[in-house]
Write a structure and sequence with these properties.
The chain is mainly α. It has two helices and two strands, in the order H-H-E-E.
Length: 70
């Protein structure tokens, strides 16, 4: 896992937690709905990053393809 992937997973997981907390403490139903929606979107982003990490091949990408730099 690259540093960028790990960093994005950390940011999105913290965002999901904060949005879930905001949805729980909301006084307005519209704000609660949109905070819960943002929390679900952040959670899906974390799952998408994990899925892409596990589905890619273990080998590195080639430096050259048909003699041209990648």
């Amino acid at each position: 896992m690259t540093h960028g992937e790990a960093g994005l997973m950390l940011v999105f997981s913290l965002s999901a937690f904060l949005c879930l907390f905001a949805a729980a403490k909301a006084l307005d139903t519209a704000f609660a709905f949109h905070a819960a929606l943002a929390s679900a979107a952040s959670l899906l982003a974390v799952l998408a990053i994990l899925s892409r990490y596990y589905n890619r091949p273990a080998s590195l990408t080639p430096q050259e393809i048909r003699g041209r730099p990648n």
